[in-house]
Amino acid sequence: MPSRCPLCAEAGGVLIARSPRWRVIRAEDAAFPAFYRVVWNEHVPELSALSAAQRGECMDVVCTVEQVLIDALQPAKINLAALGNVVPHLHWHVIARFEADSHFPQPVWGTPQREQPDAVRLLKVGLNELDSRIKASLQHAFQCA
Amino acid sequence: MPSRCPLCAEAGGVLIARSPRWRVIRAEDAAFPAFYRVVWNEHVPELSALSAAQRGECMDVVCTVEQVLIDALQPAKINLAALGNVVPHLHWHVIARFEADSHFPQPVWGTPQREQPDAVRLLKVGLNELDSRIKASLQHAFQCA
């Protein structure tokens, strides 16, 4: 646990669910409100550092979040990414994208394509409800907290 | 196979290895020369559309490429992403990043941070050798072509 790693020190966002091995948080990004992260609790930089079983569980968590976002929001696309150039502690970005969001079809890290001052209105369900559905799906699949 | 999907019509880059289910290509990006893609051959948009076994194999391929890049290049970071906003056919970007590359620590889709006219010199081994090592590792792990 490097002392300056923010993902070792803090949850990193709104905590949705957690197990001893991982946690799911919501990133609180106003431009992309349905932006969640799957954080592996142990400080490892790269996916291939996990064992096959750990990697399988990590990607199962990613896919559980993805599937709830698809079912609840019918987004144009889900974007998945594990970058970690700034914080090299394994975390997956899981982001629901919409054709009317500020950057589509560019990545969220790319060039803005349009003004979208009210991105939350693109969501078919509210954030509290979305958080609850993700938590319930994770608890069902992983018996987590 | 949607007729206008470029990843249904063509390999999508320099073909490194292939199986009946997936292929690995090199993207030929001058700014990020060690940029590979794992393309799932069937036209599915999202990772969660794969079966558990397919998803496991897909991520094993991603991790095999990642591990060769780490071993061969000792990059600052590996970046993984499945976006597909423009081409919604499942493909994983696997990119070796270096502190001196044009965008680090920004994502490759972000704002350039510096001039880097000769990115290939950041690689400890040449691209042909890198391609060969990736192919050999994939053949060893998956008995693929």
Largest sheet of chain A: 5 strands, antiparallel
Can you give the helix content of chain A as a percent range?
A: 25-40%
Please indicate the percent range of residues of chain A in DSSP E strands (runs of 2 or more). Answer: 15-25%
Radius of gyration over C-alpha positions of chain A, nearest whole angstrom: 15 Å
Q: Which protein chains are joined by the largest interface, and how many residues does each one contribute? A: A-B, 33 and 33 residues
Query: Which fold name is given in CATH as the topology of chain A?
Result: HIT family, subunit A
Mean pLDDT over the full residue set of chain A: 97
N-end to C-end Cα span of chain A: 22 Å
Please report the number of helical segments of chain A.
3
CATH class of chain A: Alpha Beta
Order of helices and strands of chain A: HEEEHEEH
Q: What oligomeric state is this?
A: homodimer
- Outline type of chain A: globular
